[in-house]
Protein backbone atom coordinates (compact mmCIF):
# COMPACT_ATOMS: atom_id res chain seq x y z
CA UNK A 1 0.00 0.00 0.00
CA UNK A 2 1.08 3.58 -0.57
CA UNK A 3 0.81 4.42 3.12
CA UNK A 4 3.17 7.31 3.07
CA UNK A 5 1.17 10.34 2.14
CA UNK A 6 -0.53 13.35 3.57
CA UNK A 7 1.14 16.72 4.13
CA UNK A 8 4.77 17.01 3.07
CA UNK A 9 7.49 17.48 5.63
CA UNK A 10 5.75 15.63 8.47
CA UNK A 11 7.88 13.45 10.70
CA UNK A 12 6.88 10.86 13.26
CA UNK A 13 4.01 11.67 15.57
CA UNK A 14 3.81 10.58 19.20
CA UNK A 15 0.51 8.97 20.14
CA UNK A 16 -1.41 9.05 23.37
CA UNK A 17 0.41 5.84 24.33
CA UNK A 18 3.78 7.57 24.09
CA UNK A 19 4.95 5.71 20.96
CA UNK A 20 6.28 7.50 17.89
CA UNK A 21 4.75 6.36 14.60
CA UNK A 22 4.56 7.24 10.93
CA UNK A 23 1.93 9.99 10.57
CA UNK A 24 -0.58 7.81 8.67
CA UNK A 25 -0.79 5.59 11.78
CA UNK A 26 -1.04 8.34 14.37
CA UNK A 27 -4.64 7.69 15.39
CA UNK A 28 -5.94 4.53 17.09
CA UNK A 29 -7.77 2.14 14.78
CA UNK A 30 -7.25 -0.37 12.00
CA UNK A 31 -4.52 1.60 10.28
CA UNK A 32 -2.48 1.90 13.48
CA UNK A 33 -2.98 -1.79 14.22
CA UNK A 34 -1.78 -2.66 10.72
CA UNK A 35 1.24 -0.36 11.11
CA UNK A 36 2.14 -1.83 14.49
CA UNK A 37 1.73 -5.51 13.66
CA UNK A 38 2.00 -6.14 9.90
CA UNK A 39 3.40 -3.37 7.75
CA UNK A 40 7.05 -3.97 6.99
CA UNK A 41 7.04 -7.49 8.41
CA UNK A 42 8.31 -10.23 6.06
CA UNK A 43 5.98 -13.05 5.08
CA UNK A 44 6.84 -16.55 3.95
CA UNK A 45 5.05 -18.61 1.35
CA UNK A 46 3.47 -18.16 -2.04
CA UNK A 47 -0.09 -17.63 -0.83
CA UNK A 48 0.90 -14.96 1.71
CA UNK A 49 2.92 -13.06 -0.86
CA UNK A 50 0.26 -13.42 -3.55
CA UNK A 51 -2.34 -12.04 -1.14
CA UNK A 52 -0.29 -8.94 -0.55
CA UNK A 53 0.40 -8.44 -4.24
CA UNK A 54 -3.31 -8.82 -4.99
CA UNK A 55 -4.45 -6.43 -2.27
CA UNK A 56 -1.91 -3.83 -3.34
CA UNK A 57 -3.35 -4.02 -6.86
CA UNK A 58 -6.92 -3.70 -5.56
CA UNK A 59 -5.85 -0.70 -3.45
CA UNK A 60 -4.89 1.29 -6.55
CA UNK A 61 -7.10 4.38 -6.59
CA UNK A 62 -8.61 3.58 -3.19
CA UNK A 63 -7.61 4.02 0.45
CA UNK A 64 -5.77 1.23 2.21
CA UNK A 65 -8.30 1.51 5.04
CA UNK A 66 -10.98 0.35 2.59
CA UNK A 67 -8.93 -2.70 1.65
CA UNK A 68 -8.24 -3.56 5.28
CA UNK A 69 -11.96 -3.51 6.09
CA UNK A 70 -12.66 -5.81 3.16
CA UNK A 71 -9.68 -8.13 3.66
CA UNK A 72 -11.60 -10.91 5.44
CA UNK A 73 -14.03 -11.05 2.51
CA UNK A 74 -11.17 -11.01 0.00
CA UNK A 75 -9.59 -13.97 1.78
CA UNK A 76 -12.87 -15.85 1.74
CA UNK A 77 -13.86 -15.32 -1.88
CA UNK A 78 -10.33 -15.87 -3.20
CA UNK A 79 -9.97 -19.18 -1.33
CA UNK A 80 -7.29 -17.99 1.06
CA UNK A 81 -5.29 -16.77 -1.94
CA UNK A 82 -4.44 -20.32 -2.92
CA UNK A 83 -2.75 -19.67 -6.26
CA UNK A 84 -3.66 -23.01 -7.83
CA UNK A 85 -7.33 -22.63 -6.98
CA UNK A 86 -7.47 -19.07 -8.29
CA UNK A 87 -5.70 -20.12 -11.49
CA UNK A 88 -8.50 -22.63 -12.12
CA UNK A 89 -11.35 -20.10 -11.82
CA UNK A 90 -13.84 -20.23 -14.66
CA UNK A 91 -16.30 -17.70 -16.02
CA UNK A 92 -18.96 -18.57 -13.45
CA UNK A 93 -16.56 -17.95 -10.56
CA UNK A 94 -15.44 -14.69 -12.14
CA UNK A 95 -19.06 -13.54 -12.44
CA UNK A 96 -19.66 -14.48 -8.80
CA UNK A 97 -16.69 -12.37 -7.70
CA UNK A 98 -17.95 -9.39 -9.68
CA UNK A 99 -21.36 -9.75 -8.04
CA UNK A 100 -19.99 -9.90 -4.47
CA UNK A 101 -20.46 -6.49 -2.86
CA UNK A 102 -18.16 -7.42 0.04
CA UNK A 103 -15.07 -6.91 -2.12
CA UNK A 104 -14.00 -4.30 -4.66
CA UNK A 105 -16.00 -5.21 -7.76
CA UNK A 106 -13.55 -3.96 -10.34
CA UNK A 107 -13.55 -6.13 -13.45
CA UNK A 108 -9.97 -5.31 -14.46
CA UNK A 109 -8.63 -6.08 -10.98
CA UNK A 110 -10.57 -9.34 -10.64
CA UNK A 111 -9.35 -10.43 -14.07
CA UNK A 112 -5.79 -9.43 -13.11
CA UNK A 113 -5.95 -11.59 -9.99
CA UNK A 114 -6.86 -14.66 -12.04
CA UNK A 115 -4.30 -13.78 -14.70
CA UNK A 116 -1.59 -13.29 -12.07
CA UNK A 117 -2.38 -16.61 -10.40
CA UNK A 118 -1.92 -18.38 -13.71
CA UNK A 119 1.30 -16.47 -14.34
CA UNK A 120 2.55 -17.40 -10.87
CA UNK A 121 1.93 -21.09 -11.59
CA UNK A 122 3.76 -20.77 -14.92
CA UNK A 123 6.67 -19.04 -13.23
CA UNK A 124 7.43 -21.96 -10.93
CA UNK A 125 10.70 -23.44 -12.04
CA UNK A 126 10.79 -21.33 -15.20
CA UNK A 127 14.11 -19.59 -15.70
CA UNK A 128 16.47 -18.35 -12.99
CA UNK A 129 13.70 -16.74 -10.90
CA UNK A 130 12.12 -20.06 -9.94
CA UNK A 131 9.12 -18.53 -8.19
CA UNK A 132 7.24 -15.28 -7.73
CA UNK A 133 8.49 -15.09 -4.17
CA UNK A 134 12.18 -15.39 -5.04
CA UNK A 135 11.84 -12.95 -7.94
CA UNK A 136 10.21 -10.25 -5.82
CA UNK A 137 12.78 -10.62 -3.05
CA UNK A 138 15.77 -10.68 -5.39
CA UNK A 139 14.61 -7.56 -7.23
CA UNK A 140 14.31 -5.31 -4.18
CA UNK A 141 16.68 -2.32 -4.04
CA UNK A 142 19.63 -1.95 -1.71
CA UNK A 143 18.49 -0.31 1.56
CA UNK A 144 18.93 3.44 1.67
CA UNK A 145 18.93 5.98 4.51
CA UNK A 146 15.92 6.20 6.74
CA UNK A 147 13.34 8.78 5.59
CA UNK A 148 13.03 11.53 8.17
CA UNK A 149 9.79 13.14 6.99
CA UNK A 150 7.10 12.36 4.43
CA UNK A 151 8.98 14.56 1.97
CA UNK A 152 11.68 11.89 1.81
CA UNK A 153 9.25 9.18 0.67
CA UNK A 154 9.03 8.14 -2.97
CA UNK A 155 6.21 6.21 -4.71
CA UNK A 156 8.46 4.04 -6.89
CA UNK A 157 12.05 3.40 -7.88
CA UNK A 158 14.10 2.33 -10.92
CA UNK A 159 14.14 -1.17 -9.43
CA UNK A 160 10.35 -1.34 -9.13
CA UNK A 161 10.05 -0.14 -12.71
CA UNK A 162 12.41 -2.89 -13.85
CA UNK A 163 10.46 -5.51 -11.90
CA UNK A 164 7.19 -4.23 -13.35
CA UNK A 165 8.52 -4.69 -16.87
CA UNK A 166 9.82 -8.18 -16.05
CA UNK A 167 6.55 -9.34 -14.49
CA UNK A 168 4.54 -8.02 -17.43
CA UNK A 169 6.78 -10.01 -19.76
CA UNK A 170 5.98 -13.04 -17.62
CA UNK A 171 2.25 -12.51 -18.13
CA UNK A 172 1.32 -10.52 -15.01
CA UNK A 173 -0.96 -7.49 -15.05
CA UNK A 174 -1.80 -4.64 -12.68
CA UNK A 175 1.82 -4.73 -11.50
CA UNK A 176 2.93 -1.15 -12.03
CA UNK A 177 6.07 0.25 -10.38
CA UNK A 178 4.09 2.02 -7.64
CA UNK A 179 2.17 -1.13 -6.74
CA UNK A 180 5.38 -3.13 -6.56
CA UNK A 181 7.19 -0.52 -4.49
CA UNK A 182 4.28 -0.53 -2.05
CA UNK A 183 4.51 -4.33 -1.96
CA UNK A 184 8.19 -4.13 -1.03
CA UNK A 185 7.28 -1.69 1.74
CA UNK A 186 4.59 -4.02 3.05
CA UNK A 187 7.03 -6.94 3.04
CA UNK A 188 9.83 -5.00 4.72
CA UNK A 189 12.03 -5.30 1.63
CA UNK A 190 12.05 -1.49 1.58
CA UNK A 191 11.86 0.02 5.07
CA UNK A 192 10.01 3.32 4.86
CA UNK A 193 9.06 3.59 8.51
CA UNK A 194 10.27 7.10 9.30
CA UNK A 195 13.35 7.66 11.43
CA UNK A 196 12.22 7.61 15.04
CA UNK A 197 9.19 5.38 14.42
CA UNK A 198 9.08 2.60 16.98
CA UNK A 199 8.68 0.07 14.15
CA UNK A 200 11.70 1.24 12.18
CA UNK A 201 13.97 -1.77 11.50
CA UNK A 202 11.28 -4.33 12.33
CA UNK A 203 11.94 -6.27 9.12
CA UNK A 204 15.48 -7.12 10.20
CA UNK A 205 14.23 -8.28 13.59
CA UNK A 206 11.54 -10.52 12.16
CA UNK A 207 13.32 -11.85 9.04
CA UNK A 208 12.37 -15.45 8.44
CA UNK A 209 9.24 -15.24 10.58
CA UNK A 210 6.27 -17.05 9.03
CA UNK A 211 3.41 -14.57 9.35
TrEMBL record:
Metal-binding keyword on record: yes
UniProt entry keywords in alphabetical sequence: Metal-binding, Zinc
Molecular function (Gene Ontology), one example: DNA-3-methyladenine glycosylase activity
Single GO biological process annotation from the record: base-excision repair
Superkingdom to which the source organism belongs: Bacteria
Pfam families linked to this entry: Adenine_glyco
Transmembrane segments: none
Residues reported in the UniProt entry to bind Zn(2+): 22, 35, 193, 197
Protein's UniProt name: DNA-3-methyladenine glycosylase I
Taxonomic placement: Bacteria, Bacillati, Actinomycetota, Actinomycetes, Propionibacteriales
Amino acid sequence: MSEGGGPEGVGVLVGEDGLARCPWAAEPGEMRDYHDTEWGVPVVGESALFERLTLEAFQSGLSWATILRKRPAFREVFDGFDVDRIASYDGAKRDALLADARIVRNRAKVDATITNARATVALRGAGPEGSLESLIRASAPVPGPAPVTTTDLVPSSPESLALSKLLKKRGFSFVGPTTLYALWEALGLVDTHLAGCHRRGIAALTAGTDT
